[in-house]
Amino acid sequence: MIKIKKTTPLTTDTISLLAKVTVSLGLAVVVIYLFRIKHFPTSIAIGDSFIFATSSFSFAIIYLLLSIPIVVTAHFAARFFLGIFNRIANKELFLRKTISTFASHSLAFSPYFLLLLTNSYFLYDYIGDISTIFLVMFILFIILLHKTNTNMENKHIFCVLILLLPALVSLRLTGYIIDRSMELTGIRKDNVTFHLDERTRESICKIDSNISCNENTFFGKILFKMGNEYVIELSGKKFVIYPDSIAFLYE
């Protein structure tokens, strides 16, 4: 009973802190996304904790799925490179031993490498960003692993900074992750076919003459879908409309 009484406050404080961090991260993700689409709706408030928490979890899942394979593969490549470099420097380069060491370690890292290849295949437009992150992480691990006097107590800080580094190296890829997390949350919808009422079509046509008023269906994006206003994108331009003026045909 004594142990339970001692650990319960710590567990409660930890859960409370985790909830606050989750909501704060979700709030940051939503705010950054609103800056990206350059629209600040009145239908969202600080009290929407569920939306912020969902956005936080969505961003964390997608971000970790993309960043962890890059970090782990770069770490493996740096360790293998330093191993060969040290053997050459000490004149202990044995081909058989080098190959066996590489084979034994590569089995543990192969799932991350395959996931990295899969991410690179599906994110072909961002292959340059992924390569840049990999190169930066590779150089960073070379520096960290080369220093043998690294303080063990600070390794958890290194892990946090290393996981945050990919987001800072490529803001373009981070923006893509934020967009996908908003889509997973349900705030954003890409590649949507929808129908607009006549009054909304006439208003849009007056703003953009490239959009035909005679069309009943439109193909575009929904950048923000919440509360009493939607933000849609047609022909590269953004429009704010009311929910009762739009009907979704295909999502």
TrEMBL record:
<keyword id="KW-0812">Transmembrane</keyword>
<keyword id="KW-1133">Transmembrane helix</keyword>
<feature type="transmembrane region" description="Helical">
    <location>
        <begin position="21"/>
        <end position="37"/>
    </location>
</feature>
<feature type="transmembrane region" description="Helical">
    <location>
        <begin position="126"/>
        <end position="145"/>
    </location>
</feature>
<feature type="transmembrane region" description="Helical">
    <location>
        <begin position="157"/>
        <end position="178"/>
    </location>
</feature>
<feature type="transmembrane region" description="Helical">
    <location>
        <begin position="57"/>
        <end position="82"/>
    </location>
</feature>
<keyword id="KW-0472">Membrane</keyword>
<protein>
    <submittedName>
        <fullName>Uncharacterized protein</fullName>
    </submittedName>
</protein>
